[in-house]
Write a structure and sequence with these properties.
By secondary structure, the protein is of the alpha/beta class. The chain has a domain of 181 residues: Vaccinia Virus protein VP39 (Rossmann fold). The protein contains 11 helices and 7 strands. The protein has a 7-stranded mixed β-sheet, with helices on both faces.
């Protein structure tokens, strides 16, 4: 599961209703378009870092003829279940998920022409190491795309976030077992330090803000409540901080950030 993309007009108002499932598909397509990945010649070998069950891997492989996708996750269950889904959909030969650490990837240098991370960067305890590994496995001329939760950029003269912002993020991190976040500007610096070029950053906080309302409404349904209690305290704890995610997006503490760049051709 990841955020959906809900189109908004210049005033931030929703332009039309879409289902949450379609919004999640639209998120992948809109990120690719925003990053300039629009043709099958752009993507022959993709790496999906923090792939979950491999939804993005399968979508990109199906979208671009001849594309092969490799996904990595820390969860053996996710890798096994995702591979089973790929087989069921006839993509088993082109999409393979495996267990691996994003900070110590088991791939040769310059192995992939698209390195993709959708909502996994917030889980990385060492953001510099994370970006360095993404850069290392990207082939010359290839593209890195990170879509991740960030906290807001600091204003000139600010030493850090306000106390109430730190407290909000502390509660979210505790519930979702997350390390400390960074700002979009920090990711920009890390991309530059790694040597990526043509770097672009975007804030899609408005475009994803309806997601949390939809998730909260689903969780508060009869089936949702029963499912939460059945899943146990960890899942219930995560559900209880959903309104904090929504609040953080509304007040600007939380940013839904996109960062992309290309590796210089030799």
């Amino acid at each position: 599961m990841h955020h959906g993309y809900y189109p908004v007009d210049a005033d931030g108002k929703a332009k039309g209703a879409v289902s949450n499932r379609q919004a999640q598909v639209d998120m992948v397509d809109n990120v690719l378009s925003w990053a300039g990945v629009t043709d099958s010649t752009d993507v022959k070998n993709m790496l999906d870092v923090g792939c979950g069950l491999g939804g993005s891997s399968r979508h990109v492989a199906a979208k671009f003829a001849g594309c092969k996708a490799t996904g990595i996750t820390l969860s053996p269950y996710q890798a096994a279940r995702g591979n089973a889904i790929s087989e069921e959909r006839g993509l088993g030969e082109r999409v393979r998920l495996q267990v691996a650490d994003a900070l110590y990837q088991p791939f040769d240098d310059a192995s992939f022409d698209l390195v993709w991370s959708l909502e996994s960067g917030e889980h990385m305890p060492d953001k510099a190491r994370f970006v360095s590994e993404l850069y290392r496995v990207t082939a010359p001329g290839g593209r890195v795309i990170i879509v991740t939760w960030c906290h807001r950029n600091l204003e000139p003269g600010e030493a850090g976030l306000r106390d109430e912002e730190e407290e909000l993020l502390r509660k979210i991190n505790k519930a979702y077992f997350l390390p400390r976040w960074c700002s979009p500007n920090r990711y920009l610096e890390l991309f530059e330090e790694a040597g990526l070029e043509d770097i672009k950053v975007a804030d899609w906080s408005r475009e994803v803000s309806p997601f949390w309302g939809a998730v909260i409404r689903s969780a508060l349904s009869v089936d949702g409540v029963l499912g939460l209690f059945k899943a146990g305290w960890g899942t219930l704890q995560g559900a209880l901080v959903m309104p904090l995610m929504a609040k953080g997006l509304r007040d600007g503490t939380i940013k839904f950030a996109l960062i992309t760049g290309t590796k210089r051709k030799v």
